[in-house]
Please model this.
Amino acid sequence: MLTEILVVEGAHDKQKLESVYPGVECIVTNGSEIAETTIALIKSASDHRGVILFLDPDHPGRMITDRILAAVPNAKIAFLPRREAVSENGRKVGVEHASAAAIDAALRGVYTLGGHAKVLVTPADLYARGLAGAPDAARRREMVSERLGLPLSNAKTLLKWMNMLGLPAERLDG
Model:
């Protein structure tokens, strides 16, 4: 059972998680217009129990993640691959559409941010591995992101995630 409180975007995400993990506790952000009182609640929960950000693998989800991390840098993050979170009709993306197995896999691969002051991955590391500046760089980044459980990103954002999470360049090899 999870000891941390999960932070999700909407009530349907919370319902889905409760069906997978009965008794799980969640804080719902109510989308990208997250209130300051909700951020304060997440900070308090993080200080007392710990929180895992489990937001939708889309642009609003990334924006919410960035906003919460600015206020709660000790939050943990679980990434759900976008392809695992698409609705049956292919029109929507969200935690609520993921299978129990995909949710479980994402929550087993939780990342903790740390005070990683030194740069572990450089742009040269991405270029050397064909993850930037190559004709098929986007496809390669997609494969690396999926293997590492990171959100699909452009080269600059992949570099940011790698260094923020303290992942060495060797983790790009696979």
